[in-house]
Amino acid sequence: MYEELSLTCLTLNEEGLVIPWDNLDENNFKFKHVSTNEQFFPSTFVNQGNGNYTFYGWKKNVGGVLVSIDDIQPVYVYIDDIPRYNYGVFYIGALDLHFLDKSSQQEINAVKDFKVFPTLPEDSPDADYQPTHKKYVDDVNDNTIDYLNNNFADLAKDNTFLGNNLHKGNNTFHHSGEHKFVVDPLDPELPGWPYLEFENFIESNYTPPNPNSLVHKDFLIRSLASLSLAPYQESSNIVRVVPDGNNETGKVYRSIQAAINYFSQPSESRQYVVYICGPGLTSQYIFLNHIHLKNYIHLTGSSLMRSIAGNNPPGLVLGGNSDSVTKIISLLNLNIYMGAFDIENDRTYNSFNFDNCTIYAYKSLMFNNCKLHNCLIYQPSGQAITLNGTTEMIDCKIMQQLIIGGSFQGLVINSPSEINSSFSMPTDPTLST
User: Fold this and answer.
1) Which long-range contacts (CB under 8 A, 24 or more apart) does 392-397 make?
2) Could you read off the pLDDT of 229-282 as tens digits, one per residue?
3) Within a 13 Å sphere around the CA of 229, how many CA atoms are in the beta-carbon half?
4) Cβ–Cβ < 8 Å for 300, 316
5) pTM above 0.70?
6) What is the secondary structure of 301-364 as a DSSP string?
7) CA 414: distance to chain centroid?
8) How many CA atoms lie within 13 A of 129 on its CB side?
9) How far apart are CA 113 and CA 378, in angstroms?
């Protein structure tokens, strides 16, 4: 089959890369016999785009007149009068591929209109996209009708239901016996839940006869009312702070101060934990005057909440009028703002334990006989950090815009000091935030 000739033409761009040669027209092409150099002309030329071209309907010049050829001719391709031998020899002429051949397999790539119905083989189709005939459709219809008559009920008549039956639509059943309803609330074709109507007795006295019986709402309410649920259990040494919650004595409080005040007489042998679930939705911070802190009542957060879109991360603001604070307590998993909004002098923390905290220090800090573990401390220019006494600093990192003085005389591990001017200190939280 040589009627249609397809070519893919490529060229080089200025960078030496191979690209499609897609700006040619029919005048750029010539087709010449490999031996006699006789030229042949396609009657149809199609630029398919992307360097692809198609030619068919071959003719030759006979006495100044172009006539169709009916034999096969070997040709070379010329582009811009230059022979392109790299394409090799093409064979043109002979069979016209635009007509159907009765004895060979061909592909039809266009719409064909049939003026009369074609006759198909008597066999039934066995592939998804094979055409079918009327007899096959009639047989399927007959079989479907027989199946429906034998397996589905006419709701206008008396019926006996056997097996698993699915009822759709609004149906009224006036018969006795045991019935099973399958309801899928995710199926949009189901109209809704079936309901029960009772005759000759009070519905509230009805109890389903077996575990799979359909029940009504009244029975469900009576069953739930009889349940006894165990309260949420928590250690007597732990209370939670939920700013947007409701106070529950000995369990939940809306402020840290109220939670701390619940515990009486904490000691080394009887220690307590206040679990801060978050700042809530009405404020970004939880403010706490450190005069309300008590020895052996520790504060822990639900997580280290990070900054979003450049805003200050939610956290605990430790304020107060005293510049020196001495408490035997631990603060864990918290963002802590120190020296913010009401502090004008440097601050000293004595006997504190900070674990896994992010600390924003707006003033110079002195940690005396403290323990800091896995903490990240941010401090602006002009401020310093001093470790005194038995202070331990383990796996911590200090981010200072400019280190000025300060000393690390305690039990320091990994010498945590770094100059980093690329970070920005959050704005001091204020009472109106």
Assistant:
1) 393/367, 396/372
2) 777 777 889 999 888 888 999 999 998 999 999 998 899 999 999 998 877 776
3) 5
4) no
5) no
6) ES--PPP-TTPPPPEEEEE-S-SEEE---EEES-EEEES-SS--S-EEEES-EEES-EEEESS-
7) 41
8) 0
9) 80
